[in-house]
Write a structure and sequence with these properties.
With 166 residues, the chain is α/β, with parallel strands linked by helices. The chain has a domain at 59-134: 3-Layer(aba) Sandwich (Rossmann fold). The chain has helices spanning 65-68, 82-94, 109-119, 136-141, 147-151, and strands at 4-12, 19-26, 103-105, 127-131, 153-158. This is phosphoglycerate mutase (2,3-diphosphoglycerate-dependent).
Length: 166
């Protein structure tokens, strides 16, 4: 079985030896691949996406204030450091030409900050809008009524199930 997998970019993430690999996978099958072994033309660009393809983009949040201090963060809601902000912006630049329809993020502010900062770099300049589903009142307050506004927006769905382990 094979899957069509393209490397978007690889860069360092946070402190230590961890690496951040942004990989687009298309097709109905997926693979786990070490991004270091993927071919690259050195420019970080990729072929345009065909209309029948889908992409899954995974981005780890930028460096948090507790990452900087080498503390285990888990589900403690800690914001990004200035370095984490820069990492999120760089991640956004690396995915700026990939069409994005929806964003899923954990409930943690560091992940939401990373998503928002990354999307500010996107060439389509769509506005990421967090959808609130915690109550009927919250849903009505965050509802978008204008079709023009909907076309210029990307829904951001937060889910505690995506939070880091505790």
């Amino acid at each position: 079985r094979t899957a069509n997998v393209r490397l978007v970019s690889v860069g360092s993430c946070c402190s230590g030896n961890r690496k951040l690999g942004l990989v687009c996978a298309s097709g109905s099958q997926s693979s786990v691949i070490d991004p270091v072994h993927l071919p690259s033309n050195g420019k970080g660009d990729h072929s345009p996406k065909k209309s029948s393809e889908s992409s899954l983009i995974l981005i780890r949040h930028g460096e948090s204030m507790w990452n900087e201090k080498n503390l285990f963060t888990g589900c403690v809601d800690v914001p990004l450091t200035p370095k984490g902000v820069d990492e999120a912006i760089e991640a956004g630049k690396r995915i700026c030409n990939i069409p994005i329809d929806v964003i899923f993020t954990s409930a943690m502010i560091r992940s939401q900050m990373t998503a928002m900062l990354a999307m500010m770099q996107h060439r389509r300049k769509k506005v990421p809008i967090i959808t609130h589903k915690e109550s009927e009142q919250a849903q009505s307050w965050s509802k978008i009524y204008s079709e023009d506004t909907k076309e210029q927006s990307i829904p951001v769905i937060t889910a505690w199930q995506l939070n880091e382990r505790m």
